[in-house]
Amino acid sequence: MELFSSLTPVFIAIICVLIGIILKSNRKNSKKGKRETKNKSESRPWVDDDLRDSTDLHVEEEDADGDWQGLDENIAHVSFSAEHYSEGEMIKRSKEFYELLSKRRSVRFISDEPVPREVINNVIKAAGTSPSGAHTEPWTFVVVQDPEVKQRIREIIEEEEEINYKKRMGDRWVNDLKRLRYLDYSSYLILILKQVYGMLPNGQRRTPLLNEIMLLPVVILFANVGLVTVTSTPLNCGPRLRVLLQRPKNEKLLLLLPVGYPSKDATVPDLTRKPLDDIMVVM
Amino acid sequence: MELFSSLTPVFIAIICVLIGIILKSNRKNSKKGKRETKNKSESRPWVDDDLRDSTDLHVEEEDADGDWQGLDENIAHVSFSAEHYSEGEMIKRSKEFYELLSKRRSVRFISDEPVPREVINNVIKAAGTSPSGAHTEPWTFVVVQDPEVKQRIREIIEEEEEINYKKRMGDRWVNDLKRLRYLDYSSYLILILKQVYGMLPNGQRRTPLLNEIMLLPVVILFANVGLVTVTSTPLNCGPRLRVLLQRPKNEKLLLLLPVGYPSKDATVPDLTRKPLDDIMVVM
Known about the structure:
The structure is a homodimer.
Chain A: H1 2-42, H2 54-57, H3 59-65, H4 67-70, E1 77-79, H5 87-102, H6 117-127, E2 139-144, H7 147-169, H8 173-178, H9 182-185, E3 188-195, E4 198-199, E5 205-206, H10 218-223, E6 228-229, H11 238-244, E7 251-260, E8 267-269, H12 276-279, E9 280-282
């Protein structure tokens, strides 16, 4: 008992220390807690976790995209009218457009036959009419015609693909990479970058405003003039390509499209598309 | 001293309890730590953290989208050719397409004048020609014409918007929500859903294969027939709308588009688009 009682001050000291530690760790947790509840408050109780994907991950972006709230209230409005086609004409035009698009395929056999620059310009002007949250138009199209830059782009992609493939499927990458040569041959490489965040005059970042799904895909525009391409989002290459193309830090690669006329020996996988009934539900 | 020593067992008990608490909280933190490092390992050393957005977040999806690796090696190939237009014709077609799209605007003033179903069908067939990783075509288009379903959709969005707005901008939501009435009036509401993951015959999940940017936006297709729409991604409404539309758990709402003829009194914000030089870089 004597021993114990002599140790008493030590016990008390230990208690104080332990309490201190606990208080500290609690403060940490409560900070974390705040952050978590902040995130939670964005998602709703009934949100179905199976469905949480990118669309949930950049809520700010979606939010800004909600066209009904993005724009400055004070901006003047002008009257709008569109061509009012007859029913027959509407059906004809929609059918012809479907037929044009139904012939479009992703083609990797692209010739180096030069394509008039004016066509590329018109295609990019057309892509630039895409809707964007609060009309921020946060996109950049890089058109690469310099053979050395094309080759460097292909090399960067091959290096990254090699790493990805080795991680995932061993030797197979060697065969697959042979297919990347078409990047050099293509008349143009077009890289679409998104401004991930804008800059306010005061230098502060502004939330990103582009919902990628809104960017009009140039594939239609090329199909319309008899050019072919294949959309690709090279895995992990974005930042290196951004540096190669001397684009600012706030721009991120969305898509890489080699563009040109199909080569004489072009082939595509023999695929059919789902019938309308498999993709459309009417209520 | 006597008092203290008699209290000694109490002190010891307290110490044990406190130690217990500390150990517990430490275990929590170390779990958190593991999760964090796991996420880190997915990013590449040189990846530029400013640029980590959705495109990085679903690497699997991008990866599968790389058209050059998605498809079954054994599928037969067929030869492909496209219309080879003269330069003049290409320039003309690309210019006309640009002019068509440059007239397209996001319009919220939509009349309830009925639109022929065949036009909607053709538009959705056209959208269904979008490229998708490994040709999975993981999309569903829900066409809503039932006025009660339209109204219910508007109510769900208003409920969610009210919550979002109150969180962010106080009373302003009231004014903004008035604008949502057009959802009821529109001839059709079209909801585009993405199959977030597929199901293998053995019931296992398959990685999602759609890169959203590849989905051909129906806005062009409607513009082509003189119809108007406004793309929106209602914040947090996805799961409730999915349930309302009786869609399976693996489908996620990407876009909601009210569609119809512009109403007589339609107006749009008086905006101009960036000139080509602001969005295009040539190397």
